[in-house]
Fold:
Amino acid sequence: MRTRQAVEVLATLGQETRLDVFRLLIQAGPAGLPAGEIAARLKIPLATLSFHLQHLKQARLAHSKKRGKLVIYSANFTTVDCLVGYLLHDCCGRPRTGLEVCGQAASESKAGAKSVSERADS
Amino acid sequence: MRTRQAVEVLATLGQETRLDVFRLLIQAGPAGLPAGEIAARLKIPLATLSFHLQHLKQARLAHSKKRGKLVIYSANFTTVDCLVGYLLHDCCGRPRTGLEVCGQAASESKAGAKSVSERADS
DNA sequence: CTTACGATTCTACAATACTAGAACCATGAG
DNA sequence: CTCATGGTTCTAGTATTGTAGAATCGTAAG
Structure:
């Protein structure tokens, strides 16, 4: 994960309503939740929720699929793993353990490895 | 770390200038850097930098000490560890590994343990 | 004491983000 | 086709945040 994307993900989660939504989606697991259900549980207007859901999608923290007339949202855990990887290694120089689960799923999968930290810029 | 604090830390790092400052402080290590030096390296006005440094301090991501007429800032790595812990465990339900380095240093050290995840709220 | 310099605070402006009602668009049921 | 329902987009108002010049404060040297 590059710094630019990390900023986006951090800013997205650095907002109370959005973090609430995200946590709810995490709790819901892979099955996800329809938008209306999220709005009901968190007691926020659908319009407001929709605004935040687009944000979460943009940051690849959530994705949606349609089922009938419902739009089911689910959390993208991989992006959090990538963010954690960025925070520990690229940003802060901690050695990688090899247990990281990031990689392709939430990156643009351009050039492959790029082993250790030192400039994970722009 | 509680959700409230996590939001603050996430929002603080979710701003390009501030993340740049923080990364520079991390690179500088425990010795830290005087404010003027940071401003010079990042090419931002001192007033703007000061604004962001107060933010970083408020979120416990940095702290300052005076040496003569200089104010030396250094990064607080522990807070990042706590944030990572929150993201993985409290927020997202991953099992704790026992390798976490969070704990007292960057928390208000109120009541002690509170072992596993499940509601790390407000 | 006076001056120089590093840093913070004051202030104001610009930009961005959050909220939510209202209008609108899809989909499935009748 | 028409209607009801779930969701998004439009729109606008409010609040918050980021930027940076100018004024100010604090420390150390002359």
In short: The radius of gyration of chain B is 16 Å. The first strand of chain B starts at residue 33 and ends at 34. The interface with chain A takes residues 3, 6-16, 19, 22-23, 26-27, 77, 80, 83-84, 87-88, 91-93 of chain B (CB under 8 Å). Chain B has five helices and three strands.
